[in-house]
Design a protein that fits this description.
about 260 residues; 4-stranded antiparallel β-sheet; single chain; 5-stranded antiparallel β-sheet; alpha+beta
Length: about 260
């Protein structure tokens, strides 16, 4: 009702303006240039029309207004990063699928996830915990957009009696050990330590991973089947290729990432 009244009032104003300008054009004295008056009248009519048309045009909110509305629309988290929101929803789906089979299951990405890779159909690998004989899984989207989870067990293909990363004559393959055992654990551990301000860790001969707090050491984990010291030179080269600084230091292997 209010809109109709406003529209009727606006039309009346426009008619009055047009009428006044038209009468001014008819009764203007002869000594005044009529073309000038006609131009003024035409400008007045066009201005009146724009006055009615402009309010009806759709308004495009500015980016700043959009950001403001995202924070003030009842969203307590104020999430505006759509990729962050997307990964959160994907993570909930992964957790739901894992817990449907393993109620105590938890998991971590083995490396920083890439949403473009997932949308292109590529598989992302995650490290799983409390999932019985499985320790990894691959996550991908099928052709229908459904999230598919494939459980995996990654271990050495050597016989159980032999340590991982060794061949039949007892030699160690540092690259195989790092790919199968070292990197998955190290990636998660370094990410956690770096987030809390640490810049290095140490690995002892028995595979213990620790950081130093003054004169004391704080153990953060243990590598299984850690290669003996005579393989550390080769292992150091592998760490360096993976963008880590590595060196031997008083019977330990020191890794740093800054």
């Amino acid at each position: 009702m209010k809109v109709r009244r406003k529209k009727s009032k606006s039309l009346k104003i426009l008619k009055s303006v047009v009428l006044v300008l038209f009468l001014s054009l008819l009764f203007v004295p002869d000594n005044i240039n009529r073309s000038v008056i006609a131009g003024i009248a035409l400008a007045g009519i066009l201005g009146s029309l724009l006055f009615l048309i402009v309010p009806r045009l759709p308004r495009i909110p500015s980016p700043a207004l959009k950001r403001k509305s995202a924070y003030s629309s009842g969203n307590p988290d104020g999430i505006t990063d759509m990729e962050t929101l997307l990964w959160r929803q994907i993570s909930y789906q992964i957790t739901g699928k894992l817990k449907s089979a393993y109620p105590d299951a938890t998991w971590e990405f083995t490396k920083e996830p890439n949403v473009d890779s997932l949308l292109n159909g590529n598989a992302l690998r995650i490290r799983t915990f409390h999932t019985k004989e499985y320790n990894f899984a691959e996550v991908r989207l099928d052709r229908y957009g459904e999230l598919v989870l494939s459980m995996m067990t990654i271990e050495s293909l050597k016989p159980k009696s032999e340590p991982a990363g060794t061949d039949s004559i007892g030699q160690v393959d540092p690259q195989s050990w790092y790919t199968l055992i070292g990197k998955p654990l190290l990636s998660n551990l370094i990410g956690d330590l770096q987030a809390r301000g640490h810049q290095k860790l140490f690995i002892s001969e028995n595979g213990e991973i620790f950081i130093k707090n003054g004169d004391s050491k704080e153990i953060k984990g243990t590598f299984e089947h850690f290669p003996p010291q005579n393989y550390w030179a080769a292992l150091t080269d592998i760490f360096i290729r993976d963008e880590l600084n590595a060196k031997e230091n008083e019977g330990t292997l020191e890794l740093s990432w800054m």
